[in-house]
Amino acid sequence: TAATALRVQRIKPSPSTAAAQRVRELKAQGLAILDLTVGEPDFDTPEHVKAAAFEAIRRGDTKYTPVNGTPQLRAAIAQKLEQRHGLSYSADRIAVGGGAKQVIFLALMASLDTGDEVIVPAPYWVSYPDMVLANDGTPVVVPCPEAEGFKLTPRRLESAITDRTRWVILNAPGNPTGAAYTADELRALADVLLAHPHVQVLTDEIYDEIWYEPGRVPSLAGVEPRLTERVFLTNGVSKTYAMTGWRIGYGAGPAWLVAAVNTLQSQISSCPSSISQAAAAAALTGDQDFVRDCVAVYRGRRDVTVKLVEDIPGLSCTPPSGGFYAFVNCTGVLGKATPAGEVIGSDEDFARYLLESQQVAAIHGAAYGSPGYFRISFATSTDVLTEACERIGRACADLS
Ligand code: PLP
């Protein structure tokens, strides 16, 4: 008989993956969908990165690698962390896996026991609560309102911590809001954390290079050296180098955790793809012009999108500081009725209305733990964004 394990019954497929699938189906039916759900760069992987992969194949780097990644890739990761944050991680403190997603999942699997709590500030990346649940933990969602910049405050952190708290997850720049903590804000969170030595912090820095503000986005491990042994810093090459399909991510942190992650990986996948590792090393150590060029393009799209959205009565949007998403406040249209007489009672209703009336696909805020919003990805052309915003405006104007 079919008998799905409880750990699977507790979770659901990723809503972003499900949305992408729905868009594919509608397109296959011949509908011209304007897709704003995309969670990956619309650029191609840079040529020199592809060349490194071809070279790895030719060289015969086509076998298992060490569980924790090739020495070349770990050296490239260590070099990035040193240059960016002044942090020095020895080889035994870096784990490499099949995407940041896998590394985060393994870190939770390696550290959570039944009932352990993980503080997840909302809006959150859709996967965190389910990853915690799949590993027998309890997600403790802490709402972080737009008025507080969608960021966890020291006060909210303090009141969410209990004896059972194992982790706090900090994702900055964040998906879906693009919000990031300043060094001062991180220092204030660190003050709270220093008073609770049993709490560890998982920082998800996957969008760190896609950044629109002056300077570089700070990392908790770099800001507060006394926390370095309690921070698991995760990142990857997917977003920065348009390498989502290559599946390489990494984590740096305490040796005990990295060893536990590697033990799990040795039993789950043995190692990430040797070819992808060669490509990722080339991405991290090679010319960074590609990243600069992408950020310039994203910035232009961000500005256009935020302006067009702000011009639509009923909608508003805090400009994201990083990443490639705009999290749009749609509370102003809730309670209104569509031309067909249906009341828009929630952000989910609104997203469905946009899709059905205007063929614009976007993901509703409740999927990120924050009802009253929807997420626009600007990893798509300015033409698509402009047309989509026009249609969203029309959809709003049709409400009464
Ligand atoms: N973390 C966040 C916040 C993300 O948005 C994503 C991708 O959507 C990931 C991690 C996963 O990245 P990777 O492709 O390295 O698994």
Please give a structural write-up.
The chain contains 14 helices and 13 strands. It has about 400 residues and is α/β, with parallel strands linked by helices. Strands 2-8-7-6-5-3-4 form a seven-stranded mixed beta sheet, sandwiched between helices. A four-stranded antiparallel beta sheet has the order 9-10-13-12. α5 runs parallel beside α6 (about 125-135). The structure holds pyridoxal-5'-phosphate. Pyridoxal-5'-phosphate binds near residues 39, 99, 125 and 238. Belongs to the class-I pyridoxal-phosphate-dependent aminotransferase family. Its cofactor is pyridoxal 5'-phosphate. This is Aminotransferase. Keywords: Aminotransferase, Pyridoxal phosphate, Transferase.
Mean pLDDT: 96
The sequence of SSEs as H and E is HHEHHEHEHEHEHEHEEHHHEEHEEEH
Calculate Rg over CA atoms.
Answer: 21 Å
CATH-derived architecture of the largest domain? 3-Layer(aba) Sandwich
- The CATH homologous superfamily name of the largest domain equals Type I PLP-dependent aspartate aminotransferase-like (Major domain)
The spatial strand order of the largest sheet comes to 2-8-7-6-5-3-4
Strand content: 5-15%
Named once each, the bound ligands are: pyridoxal-5'-phosphate
Class from secondary-structure proportions? alpha/beta
InterPro entries: Aminotransferase_I/II_large (IPR004839), AspAT/PAT-like (IPR050596), NHTrfase_class1_PyrdxlP-BS (IPR004838), PyrdxlP-dep_Trfase (IPR015424), PyrdxlP-dep_Trfase_major (IPR015421), PyrdxlP-dep_Trfase_small (IPR015422)
GO molecular function: pyridoxal phosphate binding; transaminase activity
Cofactor: pyridoxal 5'-phosphate
EC number: 2.6.1.-
